[in-house]
Amino acid sequence: MNTLKGIIFDLDGTLIHTTINFTVMKERMISFLEENGIPEGCLTPKQTTVVIIATCEDILREEGRAQVEIEEVHRKLEEIMNRGELEAIKDISEVDGVLDALQELREAGYKLAVLTRSHHAYAVEALRKIGAFDLFDVILGRGETPKPKPYREALEHTATLLGLDPVETIFVGDNHIDATSAVNAVVPFIGVKTGRRGDLSWDGRFPEVLLESVTDLPAYLGGLM
Questions:
Q1: What whole-number percentage of the chain has pLDDT above 70?
Q2: Residue 204, CA distances (Å) to 27, 44, 194, 201 in order
Q3: Is 223 exposed, middle or buried (0-12, 13-18, 19+ CB in 10 A)?
């Protein structure tokens, strides 16, 4: 922690409360894919959007579909996800105390970034709504890293854009995918309890450091110095 210069945050459930219905979003994605040749039963709303997209692309390649066709399917899936996210912006709210905590971290000299699997426009509008947009040096959404979370490239790319080495950063998130991302990138992880699924967010694998919320982060980091 003595080398800490940057803090990377997940968005939904970490900085904001959101009403995105991910189950409905994934059901829309799967319905579209099954209408376009993906066999029924290969995909389920219990899978993450990343897994759904990767699985469908693998199936399409195995079927010999042209790359241009695969890219068009991917574009349609992006549209479905974008619509689901943008529909929820009106109901976004700040996790209590987040704005003050971010300002305190900024004043302490940390570079701040958001790394989310949601659309960039959604992330920007969400941060603007809670008054936090100007506090971030980097905001990265879906498709803006070489690979998405939980692949290591997501955090590595974010650190690079901050002008930092990954070892100079920490990642703060609210679920097991975020925790896995940090492990894969060899970046320290701090969990928060504000995820929409509560304890179920961790899939039985609780992080070593688990705070009530981002509001507690400045004091926690201050205690380590």
A1: 99
A2: 25, 21, 16, 8
A3: exposed
Please report the pLDDT score of residue 81 as a whole number: 92
CB 8 within 8 A of CB 171: yes
Three-class SS state of 31: helix
Structural tokens at position 86: 């943008």
pLDDT class of 20 with cuts at 50, 70, 90: confident
CB 216 within 8 A of CB 11: no
3-state percent helix, strand, coil for the chain, nearest multiple of 5: 50, 10, 35
Mean pLDDT over each residue of the chain, to the nearest integer? 94
Using the predicted structure, report yes or no on whether residue 197 has a pLDDT greater than 90. Answer: no
Residue 76 has which token pair? 């349609």
Residue 37, token pair as written in the block: 């040749």
Band of pLDDT at residue 1, cut at 50, 70 and 90 = low
The predicted-structure confidence for 203-222, as pLDDT tens digits, reads as follows 899 999 999 999 999 999 99
Token pair 């690079």 is at which residue? Answer: 160
Say if residue 49 is exposed, middle or buried (CB neighbours under 10 Å; 0-12, 13-18, 19+).
Answer: buried
- Using H for helix, E for strand and C for coil, what is the string for 90-155? HHCEECCCHHHHHHHHHHCCCEEEEECCCCHHHHHHHHHHCCCHHHCCEEECCCCCCCCCCCHHHH
pTM listed for this prediction: 0.86
